[in-house]
Structure formats: structure tokens, C-alpha cells
DNA sequence: TATGAATGAGCGTTCATTCAT
DNA sequence: GATGAATGAACGCTCATTCAT
């Protein structure tokens, strides 16, 4: 997007692009408030354009959904790839959980994106869940391989748990609370150290 | 239909009550299949009564919603009251989580009831969340008081976590998986034993 | 329809039936004026009922079409069956052509019914053309068998010709003119008598 | 596109005329396939120009319609003028009927043009019918004057009959069939010879 | 001048709710 | 009380037409 501004050969797109962005922002807002049920009329009105303009940019509701949510999902995928480089796999997994919670709590359309990933059966829902599942797998597998994570809880289980923690929120500023909950859950996932080793470490601290 | 006109004098309420029950059952079924989007015409048809009869019992869509979901929530409340009698507060809490997961996985309208408790802003949503919050509180407080549960995670946090675990499911038969996840989460909530005590217990087992 | 009035067990249909009739009349009028293109909104408005009522009676445009036009077509079919009893097959065919022209010129929805029979590909169009084709066949076959009608022009050719004569009209009162045209066409279809016989008949007259 | 800006000064009309022709051809094709219902966007796309260009040439849908169909009608008018030179007026009339049928069966937009001439009330419909009426008159009058044609059937009657024969067709390749039907009709229009004369001619043949 | 993005009135359709029977 | 026909606001979507580039 940024790059295209420099390749200024196609000019008559300035306002069109602006409308597209306005529509995406409006859709994110409307869908967030209505749980993805908002009318396209409302999206167009919120964006300040005619309904025809919305349909020119996104010929189906699905297309708008996809445009709105794909970018959100891809950001989580990117985060997972970064953390996969980390040396400590359990720490990387924990950072991913924290990162997810942080992004979902902060970014506008992310909650709706996750809700759709869980609930929907449309193309973007399948894409979203598949992408997130792979992202989680990328960090979960090494963690299990390290022997420090219970192997009987799958990556998808963790993914759905954290998503559930983010979605099942009634209050407003929940980032801290949910981060703590994710930590609690991850603590539960850790293979208990042999007491001897725990005792040894306890002595070292004390 | 014609025949019932003659019996209508002898039992003026029996039919009405039966219709009410048929409508509630039908609504639970229809709302479950459609994610709460089903038409009232479909509910009436499923119940085998006219749309007018539906409206006599439930003057708005909202009212039907409320009646359907209140009973689901009340069953969870009942479970909480039973378990509050239990001697071991942590075990009681664990049983409540298991019971919730079991009921939600099994009972027809429960998923939708929880979704509304979390998401909605209507009367029934407020009632549902308040009721469930109190139910969880009833078991959480003694468990924290026993010193075996981390005090920095609230009853509402636990409630929302378990609800989230139930809602964020794409596959079909998830009772086992989510019960295990709830256990993992509860494990994470347990205050770690002093290593010495753990060692002692370890010896006892071996 | 007439008979059902006597079987007066189902009462609550009085106004409903009236609405149905109003809708059929309105549809015939609107479709006639617009060549079958009129909006359903206009039909409902013309009938003086809400659009929802139209949809309750006729859930698709096709269903309304069918209800409007089937009765028109069936009247032509009835006429054909009556005339099939006639002794003189050519006279019967001529009477059928006159009858068609007369009915089409007089009855409200008939022109549109024929237009659809010719033009449409929907169910009612197929039904209409098939029915009319059989009706014409019923009278054409004996006429050809009598040896007095050219055998190289099919019943469908005649049918489409007469329909065409009725449809291709710009002026208002065309019954007389088209009847004469149908006669001219039928004259052209007659196998020329052997001159000797013609001469003989000529003498008889003179 | 960019290049043409430099050549636009040298030939200001060539492109424009070419576009006009492309649009007319595209419109004829699109209207034929859709029964006159095609969108202007589709016409422009088929022509390979922008919708704005279409509107520059034809400021309303009606104007495009008119331009498309006028040329079809004018071809029939030309045919009539040619045949008016013929010596045998009845043969000329027959040739005109054959020619009409042939052109309508073959030429792309002709069926639609006739349908509009008959059905429409717009400018082009009036022009079309008037033109065709005059064309038919030109050939009909001498034929009637020759005494060989029934005088009680008007030129407009013949015109509408032949148009009707062409329009009322459900099958595909109908040129032969309709040509025969037109002949039958014309046969019916011929003034019957006096039997004596027929007998004389019969003898001459035998 | 050519382009195609923007507009919005209008159509087909659904469905919560009302009301006559 | 029960029924289901009637209503009409509102939604999804199309497309003729306008206008900025």
C-alpha cells in the first residue's frame, strides 16, 4: 500500500482508494458492534458513501468480510513466524499468547476476526482458522518436543482456549486480566518438575 | 381443533400450558439450529401452533428468547447450589466446571444461552451473567478461603474462561477435550505446594 | 370454485379469497399493460393490498403468472374439446380460430397469456404452449384427414400464426379485422377444388 | 489509451465514429441476447469502451435503442423501394413478404426491432411502424389496383400479420416455415378466379 | 474526449407484529 | 383462546445516470 504511492502511474484511483479504506474501517466498526450482523447499508452510511460504491468495491458481503479480516489474521501469523526463531520454545509460546491477547485487545477488527474464525463457515472463516492453527502449531510443536509441555493438549486446544478467553468478555479493558488468565492456563500446561529438582531449585533461590 | 372447543371449559389452562411448553421446546430447537436467527413463524410451526398463539404467550421475540434461556441458566445455578454443600471446596469447584462443560455440551439451548450471557445487552443477558457470576462466586470464595487457589484470579475470570472454552469450538463432540482444558486451567490456578510437602506426598505414593 | 361455496365448512377464507381474486385481477391488468414486466409492488398496489399479502398468496412471480394465465389457456382448451364434436372438421377449425380471436380480443389476460406461451421459458409458458398445441391438433388432424386442408402446414404453424395475428396489433378494437385475417389464412389453407367441381357448384348456385 | 491523446488532434472524428459503430453493434448483440433487457454496462463492455463513452454517444438508454433499431427498419424500407419498381405487383408483394421473413430470420436485431414496432409507444416504435406501414402500402396499393388482391384487407393488416408470424415463433430455424405461411396467407388474399377462367387454364395445362 | 467510480432510486423478498375471524 | 391472513418497514442488490479525473 505504502509502496504504491510511489509508483504513481495510475492516478484516478486516489479517491477510490480512500473510499475503499473508509469502507474497510466502517465495516470493521459496524461488524464489531453487531457481531458481524450489521447491514451493508449501515456500513456504507458509516463510511459516508453510497451503497453502490460499497458494492463496486466489495461485490459480496463475503468479499467485504474477507478484506476486513484477512489482514488482522495475517498479523497474528506474522507474529508467530517471528517468535518461531526464539531459542526458548516455551517462552516463545507464552509470548505468542501474550501477543495475541494484546493485539486482540487493541486492534479494532480483531475480536470480530476471531469470532468469525470460530463461528463462521465462509471462506474467510476457514482461512482464518487454518492460518491461526498453523501459527499455533509452529510454536507448540517445539515446546512439546522440549518435554516441558503436556503433550495431551493440542495446539488447536490452546488456540481455541485463548480465543475463547478473548471473546468471552463483558467488560472493556480486559487485556491485563486475559493475559493473566492465559498465563494461568499455560502454567497448567507445564509438565510438573520432579519434586527433587523443584527442591533443588528452591534451595538455589533461597 | 373443533373437538377441543367442547373440552375448553373443563380445563382452561392445561392446553395453554402445554402450548407454552411446546413453544419453548420448539424455540430452543429452532434457535439452536439457526444460531438464534430463526423466524418466529418457524418456531410456531415447529411447535405445531399458530403464530398468533406464540404471540399470546410471548408478546415479543425478546420475551421468547428470555423464557427459553432463563431456564438453561437456572439449571447451572441449581448445580452450583448443590455443590456448595460439598466439603472439599476445590473439588466442588472442579465438579462445577466439569458439570458446566457437560451440560453445555449436552443440553440443547445451553450454548446459545451462554453466548447471550456473554454477548448480549438485553435483560436476559444481564440476568444470565449475574446469575452465573453468583453461582461461580458461591464455589470460588470457599476455595480461595481454603488457601489452595490463587486469589488473583476472580470468579468472573474463571466463569468467562470456561464459557469461552465452550463457545470457541469448531468441532462437534468437544465435551472430553474441554473438560481436560478446564482441568488444565484449574491446575494452573492451584497454589503450588511447598516442595517439601510435595516431596513428602511423592514418597507416600512410591 | 362455484362448488366450494356450497361446501361451507372452511369459513375464515372469505376475505382471503377476495384478496386472491383482487390480486389475480390486478396482476392480469398490470402484466397486460407492461407485457408481463410489471413489478409485484405495482400488482399489490393495484389490488389494494400490502406486498406481503401478495407474497403469501403467490410465493414467486412464477406462481402468480401461472395462476393468472392457466385459467385463460384452459378456456381455449375447453373450446377446442367442444368443437371436436362437430361434424364438419373444417368448419370446426374455422370456429376455433374465430373463438380464439374472440376470446383473446375480449378477455383481459389472454393476450399476455399468449405472449408468454410464445415467449417464455417458464413452466407456465411450456404448459400453455403444450396445451394450445394439443387443442389445435385435435381440430387440425380431422380437417387434414378430410382431404380439404393442405397437409404441409402443421397445427403448430396455424397456432402460431393466429397467435401472431392477435399479438401483432397496435390498434384497440381488432377483433373484426383479425377474424377476417384468420379467415383469409384459412382460405389459403384449403385445398383448391378441382375446377370442374367448382364449376358445378357455381352452376348450382346460379 | 495514453497514446491516443497525441493522435486525438489529427483525427478528431475517426475514433468517435468507430466507437459509435462498435457501440451499435454491441448493443444489437446484447439486446438480442437479452430481449432488450441488457444493461448499458454490458453494452459498453462488449463494445470495449467505458460507460461514459456510451453516454456521450447516446445520452439515454432510449437513444441507443432508437439508433440500434432505426437501421434495421430502414433496411426493410429500402427493400420495399426496390421492389416497387417491379412490373408484377402481386409478385412484388410476395417478394417483399419473402424478403421480410428472410431478413428477420437472418439479421441480428430485426426481431427486436419488429417487436418494438408493434409493442412500444416510444419514438422509435412510432417511427418503425410508420415506416413499415408506408413500405407495405407502396407494394399493396398497386396489387389491389391490379384487381388480383382482395381489397378488404389493408396493407397494415398484412404487415401486422407477417410481423406476427415472425414474432410468434418458439423454434429456432423458422425461415422456411414462415415463408410458407406467408405464401398461404397471400394465397388467401388472391381474388378467386372465375371458374370458367380456371377451367380454361386447367385445360391449357392438361 | 474517454474513463470508470459514485450515486441512489427502486425492485424483490423477508419477517416481526397486528388484527379480523 | 387460537388461528393465520395482512401489513409494511427494512434489507440485499441492480443499474441507469452523473461527474470527477
UniProtKB/TrEMBL annotation, chains A, B, C, D:
Keywords: DNA-binding, Transcription, Transcription regulation. One of its GO terms (molecular function) is transcription cis-regulatory region binding. Residues 39-58 bind DNA. It comes from the Bacteria. Residues 17-76 form the HTH tetR-type domain. This is TetR/AcrR family transcriptional regulator.
Amino acid at each position: 500500500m505504502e509502496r504504491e504511492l510511489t509508483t504513481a502511474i495510475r492516478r484516478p484511483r486516489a479517491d477510490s482508494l480512500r473510499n475503499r479504506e473508509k469502507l474497510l474501517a466502517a465495516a470493521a466498526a459496524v461488524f464489531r458492534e453487531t457481531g458481524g450482523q450489521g447491514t451493508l447499508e449501515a456500513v456504507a452510511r458509516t463510511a459516508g458513501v453510497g451503497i453502490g460504491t460499497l458494492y463496486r468495491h466489495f461485490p459480496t458481503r463475503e468479499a467485504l468480510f474477507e478484506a476486513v479480516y484477512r489482514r488482522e489474521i495475517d498479523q497474528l501469523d506474522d507474529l508467530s513466524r517471528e517468535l518461531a526463531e526464539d531459542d526458548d520454545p516455551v517462552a516463545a509460546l507464552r509470548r505468542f499468547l501474550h501477543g495475541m491477547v494484546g493485539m486482540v485487545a487493541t486492534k479494532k477488527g480483531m475480536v470480530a476476526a476471531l469470532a468469525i474464525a470460530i463461528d463462521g463457515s465462509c471462506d474467510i472463516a476457514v482461512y482464518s482458522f487454518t492460518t491461526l492453527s498453523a501459527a499455533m502449531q509452529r510454536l507448540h510443536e517445539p515446546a512439546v518436543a522440549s518435554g516441558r509441555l503436556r503433550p495431551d493438549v493440542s495446539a488447536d486446544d490452546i488456540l481455541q482456549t485463548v480465543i475463547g478467553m478473548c471473546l468471552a468478555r463483558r467488560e472493556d479493558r480486559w487485556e491485563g486480566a486475559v493475559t493473566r488468565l492465559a498465563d494461568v492456563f499455560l502454567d497448567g500446561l507445564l509438565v510438573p518438575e520432579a519434586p527433587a529438582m523443584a527442591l533443588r531449585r528452591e534451595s538455589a533461590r533461597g
